[in-house]
Amino acid sequence: MSTKEVGLISEEVRPIDMQPGTLSLQGKLLFNRELSWIEFNRRVLEEALDPRRPLLERVKFLSIFSTNLDEFFMIRVSALKEQAESENHIVSPDGMTPAEQLQAIARNLKPLIDKQMSCLREKILPELERVGIKVVPYMQLSKDSKHEVDEYFQHNIFPVLTPLAVDPSHPFPYISNLSLNLAVFVVAPDDDDSPPRFARIKVPPVVPRLLPVKDYPNHFVLLEQVIAANLHALFPEMNVIACHPFRMTRDAEIEIEEDEAGDLLKTVEQQLRQRRFGSCVRLEVDTTMPQTMVNYLRQALDLEETDVFTIDGPLSVSDLMALYKLDFPMLKDRSFTPSIPTLLTTEESIFDVLKRQDIMLHHPYDSFAPVVDFIRTAANDPKVLAIKQTLYRTSGDSPIVSALIEASERGKQVAAIVELKARFDEENNIVWAKKMERSGVHVVYGLLGVKTHSKVALVVRQEEGVIRRYVHLGTGNYNPTTAKIYTDIGL
After folding, report:
1. To pair with 394 at 20 to 30 A between CA atoms, which of 154, 206, 301, 312?
2. What is the SS3 assignment for 197-248?
3. Which whole number is the average pLDDT over 58-78?
4. Catalytic site residue 219?
């Protein structure tokens, strides 16, 4: 390469004083972080679009696609909206302003969501119906089935519903994050000339979204449709002129000024309480909702037009994951049984095995059971003096945490670093941490300024007058459930 060519390249990549939205050559060489994430989720959607996959596996990936989007809006999009509203002109490494990124996100996401719903409507649901699994629109139910469903509504749904109307003395109600709701316009029968009143009904999360249709195995009706069909019971002596589902997403990021937090545990607990009141970042509505209702909701929630996503199909597709639990093994991937290294299938103690050699596990192909057994054995072994472990995420009924508690109750020294800032697991970790503390485990709530994301367990054992230490290092969480599907290495 000539000196002239080197000089030209050097000049092109020299840092410049970029205006917001301006792209340098350096910016063109970088992927935008948020748009790159959308491409990742596109790959998830492609798994659902693949006709070679078993049918219920495709339902699962449609669900995962939606759940991923929820977290994306709660964390990534909410952060961009905060930056866009601030006076600081922040530019991403690829040269985009927050406003430009938000516009690009909406532009890239809406075609993907359309593709997701088209797949659900035109492929998945018809194919499910052919094998005997059907989500039946309420209006297509037989007369007897409607009667059964309406009876269920009266006894099990109606008592937990609370319609909230808006008028001069009742402001627009609080809408909880990711909740499914019905937006209703009502008028008095003798006052058709007055503008309609808005009312909101929260679809109760304590009732299954998919209600079984009696006498029709594996047939279901959507809960919101049952509620909409029985609005006369909620608004007696009123005319319902419109009823449509909507769903809202809030900012769920926890912001902690750790250098100002005197008690990290109390600070995280307080932030968790505040999370439910985060600002609105996305509104999902169905395609049949009239524009007047969409505009009313958007203005009441203080959202831009680009924050509204019109969905041609059921909202909250992740709820359809309930179908995956049906007993149709032929519609799922063939079950896989992970292996256990031969060295660990004998009566020999795991500590005796590890004295001779290390063992590497490749999950989920190798079972996570040896890791659980390692901690359980240590908890019950009279020669073990101490167990020290980091915990970032774990399962709801964690055998690891139970083993640490048992070890402490047996008089061993047990210490655990519990990361309170594990996103969306903060509440679970607080519950487990307090339970361990009550049993005598020494709990450390993370480290100032960082997330403790390492996965390490140390067992200290006294053997024939010497202290020997045994260690587990892993790339995955101490979670036996996710270890069955996530790819990780453990040593």
Report:
1. 206
2. EEEEEECCCCCCCEEECCCCCCEEEEHHHHHHHCHHHHCCCCEEEEEEEEEE
3. 94
4. no
